[in-house]
Hints:
CATH architecture of the largest domain: Up-down Bundle
Number of domains: 4
Strand content: 5-15%
Largest sheet: 4 strands, mixed
GO biological process, one term: protein transport
CATH class of the largest domain: Mainly Alpha
Strand order of the largest sheet: 2-1-3-4
Distance between the termini: 93 Å
Number of helices: 17
Shape: elongated
Pfam families: GST_C_6 (PF17171), Tom37 (PF10568)
Low-confidence stretches: 155-175, 186-196, 344-354
Subcellular location: Mitochondrion outer membrane
Transmembrane segments: 365-388
Organism: Cryoendolithus antarcticus
Order of helices and strands: EHEEEHHHHHHHHHHHHHHHHEE
CATH topology of the largest domain: Glutathione S-transferase Yfyf (Class Pi), Chain A, domain 2
Amino acid sequence: MLHLHVLGPAFDLPSIDAECNAAVALLRLHFGSDNESWELHISHDHTIALPWLRDDSQTLASSYNAIARHLSDLPSSTNHSSPSANDTALTSFIQTHGPSLLAVNLYVSASNYTSTTRPAFTRILPWHANYILPPHRRAVARKQTEHLGIHSIDVDNVHEDMSHRPQGFDGVGKQDGGFETQAKGRASLLLGSGKATLRGLLQKPEYAARFKLHALAENFFEPLSEILDDGEWFLGSEQAREMDCLAYGYLGLMLFPKVEQDWLAQTVRTKYPNLQRFTERMHKVLGLSTSVEEVIALQGGGDAATDAKPASLPWRPSQHSSIINTVTMIATELVHQLPYLGRSPHVITTSPSGMPFWQRYFKPLLLATLTSLALSGYYAIVTGLLVWPHGERVQIFGRKQLSDYGDLGAAISGISLMGAQVGHEGRGRVEQHVRVEENPRDVGVVIE
Length: 448
């Protein structure tokens, strides 16, 4: 039995992650309608490279490429040949250029992120992961697209942006005069100071970003459209293969989400209809349509899971996070936010199982140890188990006397005192009474 762990479903797709969608399509393609040989689980651990595949004993593969290699080595596989150069080139092209477009469309765009992406995560993640995973993935997306220089793409209507309007704009139409005066006033809107001219509009950051994004999109879609041409599958294949599943994973996440800034989906629909037909055909033939409500009901267990309709994909309830795992996840993320101990946003490309133990758990263990010591010390002081030294209640100041040196010193001191007393009595002048009293609390000796 194989267990595939992916991010949860969204937008009628098996996952909100492109390569997770590709992995689901690949296993569906490999096993067909046999849902007894593999299971599908939701995972939200962002410290592990998703998707990852395991059997009943160990993790077998992490990332789409590793999963594809593992499935091709199985005895049940019909394709045991090594991938051709064209297959490798197409796979590399999709994985190189596709993530940047998805990052901008779903995460960098503020309107798309707040209205579509973040609510989709909220439906599939537990409460604590909602404060960790979406911001982390958005930070990674911004890191991936820094080289593009894209900062603002959320402008719907150029006429609503009045920040660069020319001087005297509010007075247009109110001037006194004839046709020439009105014509000059209107011409100033187009040619006035250069800020609102066509060149000025095109140089504004949001519009420059739009043109750059459309160029990036065409550089990605144009080669794919030419390779697919009028065929059903890429590279002229007679049936779907690994690169078709990978292309579906990325194209599906570009077409299916209903976002406010839908420039990416509109580009595919208007200029590359063969890519749209390919994506919809893969989605239908492999039966990858996924109802988020049904999957969430299955994950909840109890009566809701019993009443849920059987899904076309072999979804299974995932193990709920224990309180220890939840606290560890929160503590780890808090450590990552600390200066010098934190991390810069990055994309995990290797499985943590191959990393040394100390490298994986050093920071959480350090934070847990320091927190435990601080709480233990506070508890000991509050409850009186640990008392701060305040000294003795009775303090005796002065030079040490013979009586301070144990029993022998006390005896010698007594003899000297008796000698002094006899000497005074011999003179008949001074009479001294000595009382040696031992403090019952063993604090010291009081001499009067």
